[in-house]
Amino acid sequence: MEKKVSIKDIAKHLGVSTALVSYVLNNKEKQARVGPEMAERIRATAKEMNYQPNLIARSLQSGKTRTIGLIVADISNPFFSNIARVIEDEASLNNYTVIFGSSDENAEKSASLINALIKRQVDALIIAPAENTEEQLSLLSQRKFPYVLIDRYFNTLDANGVRINNFLASYKAVKHLAKQGYTKICMIAYQTKLPHMEDRKQGFLKAMEELQLPLHENSLRESSYEAIQEDVALIMHQLLDTKKERPDSFLFATNSLAINGLKEINKRKIVVPDELGIISFDESDAFDFFYCPLTYINQSTERIGKEAVRILMNQLEKKPEHSPTGLDTTQIVIDAQLVTRASCREKKKKE
Question: Which residues pair with 269 in a beta bridge?
Answer without folding.
Answer: none
